Amino acid sequence: MKYAIGIDIGGTNTRVALVNENHEVIERQQFRTDADHPANTVAAIKEVTDSFDVEIVGMGVSCPGPLDLINGIVLDTPNLHGEWHGFPIAEELTKATGHKTYLQNDANLAALAEAVVGEGKDYRFVQFLTVSTGVGAGFTIDKKIYIGAHGFAQEIAWMCLWKNGPHHGEIYPGGIEGIASGTAITTRAKAAGLDVGHAGHVNDLALQGNLSAMQIMDDAKEYLANGIAAIIEVLDPDIIILGGSVSLKTEGFVEEVEERVRTKVFPCVRPYVKIRRSTLGEDSGLLGAACLAFENA
Question: I need a surface site. Which of 28, 149, 201, 241 has the fewest CB within 10 A?
């Protein structure tokens, strides 16, 4: 039996998993990410990987974007700071552990996991979107990640859909992440005077008939549907899979977005609109990272 290591580096925690060639997670460990000093996180990853006494074919590492996927470098991801920016994570992990390491962003790897073992395993062209703290996406063709000419394909957070629309952080006003993400939904609700802690609270108020909450949730679904319809018209995927807390924890969200998408594409395309929930949960990034290592091995 051969094994790969999947690594998911987040702004708060890093998770490391040992995955076998049947894509089963055998063991996983988690520890705090040093969000300023990557060398400390690399050392902690090495300590974990050294404890795996099996044949390792390689390692895949998931990290929030934007990334230089061509050269395996972290660029200016907002959840990692200081020495992380410009850090050649793939090269440094390869040197530290002795295992060849491949870098991808978290959404791309979740897309790969969906294409290999998830809802997209029976399809050739698989589109994935995560709607959670932010909005990210990944696209696979024949179980291989499509990264584009410069490695930035599917970086959709700034996809501008609403002139002078809402935004948060550095997101361009009217960008999809500034409208449909959980952060955006909560920020807009608070600006409207609602006492909420997360997007689920906003949806609860919408279901209770609060007009401001209803408008915010309607905007999130409508503009997300606009973005997905545009993706369908450009890429013609077999299936679109939605993950992330907003998609998975908001009752009826996926079904309503699918219904709206059908109204926004050519009539001849409507029979092929297929939007499904992710079933992989929080392991999608780890599984995708391991799939990437197996693929390159």
Answer: 149
Judgement on whether residues 133 and 56 belong to the same structural domain of the protein: no
Residues 264 and 152 sit within 8 Å (Cβ to Cβ): no
Digit-coded pLDDT (tens) for 246-277: 999 999 999 999 999 999 999 999 999 999 99
H or E stretch covering 255? helix 253-262
Say if CB 131 and CB 277 are below 8 A apart: no
Strand partners, 32: 13
Burial class (CB in 10 A: 0-12, 13-18, 19+), 168: middle
Domain holding 45, by residue range, is 3-110+282-296
For 185-244, give the DSSP string: HHHHHHHTT---SSHHHHHHHHHTT-HHHHHHHHHHHHHHHHHHHHHHHHH--SEEEEES
Q: Which of 169, 122, 126 is nearest to 144 (CA)?
A: 126
Strand ranges inside the chain, DSSP E: 3-9, 13-20, 25-32, 56-63, 67-68, 73-74, 101-105, 125-131, 135-141, 144-145, 239-243, 275-277
Mean predicted confidence (pLDDT) in 266-293: 95
Q: φ, ψ for residue 113 (rounded to 5)? A: -60, -40
Kindly state whether residue 116 falls inside one of the protein's structural domains.
no
126 and 261 housed in the same domain: yes
CA dihedral 204, 205, 208, 209 (to 10 degrees): -140
pLDDT tens digit sequence for 97-150: 999 999 999 999 999 999 999 999 999 999 999 999 899 999 999 999 999 999
